[in-house]
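Note to self: the last two entries modelled the partners one at a time, which told us nothing about the interface. This time every component goes in together.
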Amino acid sequence: MTLPTFEPGTPVVPVVAPGHGLALAWGSSTWATRTPDPVGTLAQLEASHPRWVWWRARDTATGWIAAGLRPRSCWDLGAVGRLVHGLDRDDPAATWAAAHGLPLPDPAEGALTLLDLEGEGPEPVRADGQLSREWLREGWCSDLESAQRWAGLALQVHIRQSAEVARLPDARPAPSTPSLPHLTALSESMAALLAVELEHDGLAIDRDVLEAFLTATVGPRPRSDADEVASRRARDELVWRHFGGDPMDLRNPATVRDLLARHGIAVPDTRSWRLEAYAADSPGVAALLTWRKTERIATTYGWSWVERDIAGDDRLRGQWSAAEGAGRMTASAGLHNMPTELRPAVRPPAGRVLVRADLGQIEPRVLAAVSGDRALAAAAGEDDMYAPVAAALRSDRATAKVAVLAAMYGQTSGPAGEALRDMERAYPVAMAYLREAEAHGRRGADLRTYGGRLLRLSHLADRLARSGGADSTLAHSYGRFARNAMVQGAAAELFKAWAATVRAGLADSDARIVLCLHDELLVECRADDADRVSGVVIEGLARTASWWAGGSAVRFVADVATVRDWSQAH
DNA sequence: TCGGTCACGTA
DNA sequence: CGTACGTGACCGAG
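The predicted structure of the combined assembly is written out below.
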C-alpha cells in the first residue's frame, strides 16, 4: 500500500469508518484503504504534516488521542462554525447549514425513530440542501465509498469557511498574512482538539491529600445512606444549637430568612456577603456561614464527586468545551470552580511537577489592544498597568483598578462613577469602543470580536426574555453583556492562541497541558523538564502576542512558577 | 420530571 | 442594580 503524501499544511479530511478502514479527501482527490489499524496509518500520514480537517475533534480525534497520536495541526469545522457563524452548537448538521446559509435544523433530530427517517433519500444532501439525517446518524460509516463522500462534504464546508474567514476584517493596527481571523480559526480549532486531550489526560489528584481534607471537613467517607444522613445532621446541628436546637431546613433560603428574622436579623435575602456583616455579633450567623462553606464542599466537592469524577488512575476528568458564550473554554466536574482549599490536592505523582502560568491583567491589556487606544496601550507597557492608569486619573491604584473594571463590566453607579468620567478623558478611544459595543447590545445588534467571533445578541435575547424583566432592564442587560463580551471574548481568543502555541512547543515530550482556566495554564511535566517547559510558556506568550497584538505596543505578561501542587503561590 | 430560583465557587 | 460559566438543593408546575 502506498500512502499519499502532502505538502505541509495541506487541508486533508480523514474519516475513519469503523470496521471498514480509512478514507481521505484533499484538494480534488480522495483515497481510501481497508485497514484494521486506521490510527496507525494516520500516524504515518501525520509525518507529512497535513492540516487535518474534521467535523469536530470530539467525534474524530478522540480515538487518535487514546491511541497516543497527537496531531499537530487541524481545522475544526465545528469550532470555526461557532466562531464565524456565532453558533452555540457544533454538530455537523448545524455546521453544514450555517456554512450554506440554511436555517439551523432542530438539534433534537439526532434522536429519531425509523419512522421519522421516511422520505430521507439515499443521498447525503437532501433536496432542501440540508444534510441527510440518515447520513448524520452514521450512515457515512456503512462502507468506504460512503466514508469518502462524507469526507468530501467536510472538505466543501472547509472551503466555504475558509472563504468566509478570508472576508472577515483583520482588526490589527498593521494587518498581515495570514489574517487575524484565519489565525484565530486555527487556534480555536486547536483549542477544540486540546479540549479532547484535556478530557483524556485529566488532572492529577493526590488522593491521600484530598481524602484527608474531606475527612477533616465533612467527615469520613460514608459507608451507607444512614451514614450520609447522620453526617448531614451532625453538620446541621452545629447551626441549630445557636437557634434553640430545633431541627430546621437550612437548605431552604426562605426558612433561613424567617429564622434570622425571628432572631432580629431582617435581610432581603440570605446571601453570604450580606450576612457577613452580622457574623461578628451573632455566633449563629457565623455558624451558618461556616455551615454554608462546608455544605458546598460536601455536596459539590465531597465523596460523591471523588467517586464520580476521579478515576482509578487518580485523575480528575470533566467534559471540556473550547468556546461557550463569549468564547471562553468551559469544563464540567468542577474543574473551573474548584474552591482554593482543594488546590493542595491537585498534585502530580512523584517526579512530576506543575508549571503554573497566568496572564497578568489580561482584560485591560486586551482592551488596550482591541480598541486601539494608544494611551491605554502605553499604560499596558508596564508590568502593573494600573500604576500609570492611576497617574492618568490622578487617583490611587485601587480606584484606578475599580474604574477600569467598571468600564469593562458596564457598571455605572457607586464609587466608580466619578473615576469613570476621568477614564473618558484619559482613554477616550477605549471608552468609545466599549460604548459602541454597549450600543450594539442594547439594540440587539450582532457584534464581532477582535478575532472574528460573531456574538449573536439575538440568542441572548431569547434567554433573557425567558427570565422576564422590563424592557429597559433587558436592554441594559444586553448592553452590559455586549460591552463585556467584546473584551472577555477577545481575551479568550488570545488565551487559546497562547495555549495552542504552548501545546505545539510541548510536542515530542511527555509534558501536557492539564488545565485551562481563562487566564491560567497548568502544564504537568517531569521535574527535570520544568525549566524547558517554563521557557516554552514564556516564549509562547511572546510569540503569540507579537502577531495577536502586533503593532499595538501592548505588552502581555505572565507569571510562571514550577510547583509541586496547585496551591503553591508564584 | 422539568424549569426557575437561590446560592456560591472560579475567572 | 458589574460580566461569564457549572453545580446542587429546593420549589412548584406539569
